[in-house]
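Ticket #4471: complex job returned nothing on first submit. Input attached below:
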Amino acid sequence: MQRARQIDILKELMRQLDEQVNIDAGVQYRNPVEAYTSPSIAQQEWQTLFKAHPQMIGLSGQLAGANTFFTVDDFGVPVLATRDAHGRFRAFVNACRHRGVRVANENRGQAARFTCPFHNWTYASDGELVGVPRAQDFGPLNRAEHGLVELPAQEAHGLLWVHPQPNGHLDVSSLLGSLEDEIAGWNFANLVYMGQSELRNRLNWKLANDTFGETYHFPRLHRNTLGKLFYGDALVYETFGRNHRFVWANKGIDALREQPEDEWSYEAGAGWLYYLFPNVQLSGGGHSASVIKIYPDGDNPGRSVTRVDHYYSQEMIDAASTASTLISPQEVYDPQARRGAAPTIEATMEIFDSTIEQEDYRMGETTQQAAESGVIDHLLFGRNEPALHHYHNTIRSALKLPPLEMV
Ligand code: FES
Ligand SMILES: [Fe+2]
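Support reply: We reran it on our side without changes. The output follows.
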């Protein structure tokens, strides 16, 4: 990300904090609750945005070295993602070419070969069918034509993308559009995968996403957690086609005021998220990142699954493992305890996930209940919530629904 842009963003956040004003989209919208409850909209989304749309499934660190793999079952097509013996990222339908049984049955690991549990047909990490027991009994079989069904897959700027349809079109440059250079600048490829958590909740996948769409709630809902480290009611927001960048103020921004501008650290003064259409919130870059992927759960529009993948730089992992003072999950949000101490990686991951689940998604679950009651017909998005305007209008446009109605 360009240094000049970072400085501008920090200055704009300082201005908003000084003047006690938030970002102003100049418009308010109504969002009909059907967006969260309608089975037909949910079905359309599943087809258009998941089963037939490119999916960002992780960062390069998920596949650390040749012959590593992970499986994904979140968007209707079972996927086996591998890094083959030559280090190339590949993706396959996780189904045996004999009678369709699931070939890779672990979430992730290291394997040069995948043996189907049913009759033990065996595939290499590049999908080739390399073993058929008692082939003479089975009868003629052209092995070259019976490798795992390959899916379009592309690794770019440390991001792993798959198209769930074998003949689908996948072009990461066009998906990232004008955000591509900025994403490339963060070196996501250098980060080490540290773990994933799964949050299954009773709220629509877009309602889950909405909790990442404004800073208005930071000092209120999160007053005892995130609100201790970050300022709310201030936001620098920019759209890039269907994607966006969302930047808020870290309380560390106060200390920057005493420093010359060319020493300002963006990381110290800001926190940021990139929304990647249709369902990913990517936070961080540099020394750590969290990839938050949000999916519908089955065909009930009132349920969703969120997977949060955590990645850290090797330097940060080493620093946390050798730090003399480590702080517990309870202390992660305590600015006093953090002074001169490093939280363990585990503590940071745990607190990040539990804040989403215990605070944000709790709110969303009650909204879901209200929406399903049938007695309220819309939610309101304020002038200080532009990310919600853009997100919902983008999804609606992809589904060929009319844009949100202005208040
Ligand atoms: S179904 Fe896989 S070997 Fe038969
Ligand atoms: Fe939140």
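The chain has two domains: 3-52+180-406, 55-162. Closing as resolved unless it happens again.
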